[in-house]
Amino acid sequence: MEAQNEEEAEEYQKNLKVSLDFVIEEIILHNNFEKELQLFQLLRLVSPETNAIHPNKYRQTLVQIGAHICPDKDVVPQLVSELFYQMQFITNPIVKAIYFHHELIRIHPFADGNGRVTRIAKNWMLMYDLYPPIFINDAPQKKEYITTLSKSFRALDNSPKKWNEHTENFFDQELDRLVVNATLLYETVNRIGLDREKVNKKNS
Fold first, then answer.
1. What is the C-alpha separation between 137 and 144, in angstroms, rounded?
2. Cα angle value 100/102/108 (rounded, 5°)
3. Mean of the pLDDT values across residues 192-204?
4. CB–CB of 114/104 below 8 Å?
């Protein structure tokens, strides 16, 4: 849904598959997403054209998301390091994944590809702990996602230390998407199990 044309959509899909293959291999090797270096690994896979502009570096420009002006480029490395430090103290993997998603988008460390990198990183954390990935399934859901994030950022810009209804809404929406995907996963696994039982009964 981020692609501007069919050719770009095909390129995004190709890069997404490569990225997910990489993440699955890392999970098989018992590697969770927990290091800053892994952000750049994901960027190289998800958005190689962005990485080519500033190889292995954070953005060098000012970025604005709606009314939210992202942090100055000079403080981005410090903010990302602080985010990874804070994540060490969040024990619940679901809360950690959603919190990371919210905060990394707010920092917007790269010139482009932030959404794709962040969502894959979030799902890496979830899948490592055997939760299903969280997907945005259609255009209305994408619009709601962007609107809620924008309102959350604006509220936090005004009162950085105050919990607000828009940030809460973002967490609630992500949890709702997780429940939907968990239900779909359960139904799929259950259907496969029932089909196998039928085949086994027929063959016995």
1. 11
2. 95
3. 87
4. yes
Measured distance CA(202)–CA(204) in Å, rounded: 6
pLDDT band, residue 2 (cuts 50/70/90): low
What the block records as the tokens of 137 is: 């399934």
CA angle 31, 32, 35 (to 5 degrees): 100
Torsion of CA 77, 83, 89, 92, to 10 degrees: -140
Q: What is the rounded distance in angstroms from the CA atom of residue 16 to the CA atom of residue 10?
A: 10
- DSSP output for the chain: ---SSHHHHHHHHHHHHHHHHHHHHHHHTT--S--HHHHHHHHHHH-HHHHHHSTT----S--EETTEEPPPGGGHHHHHHHHHHHHTT---HHHHHHHHHHHHHHH--SSS-HHHHHHHHHHHHHHHTTPPPP---SHHHHHHHHHHHHHHHHHHHH-TTS--HHHHHHHHHHHHHHHHHHHHHHHHHHHHHHHHHHHHHHH-
Tokens standing for residue 129 = 């702990």
Mean pLDDT of 100-120: 96
pTM, to two decimals: 0.90
Tens digit of each residue's pLDDT (9 = 90 or more) over 17-37:
999 999 999 999 999 999 999
Q: Which two tokens stand for residue 69?
A: 């002006």
d(CA 16, CA 117): 10
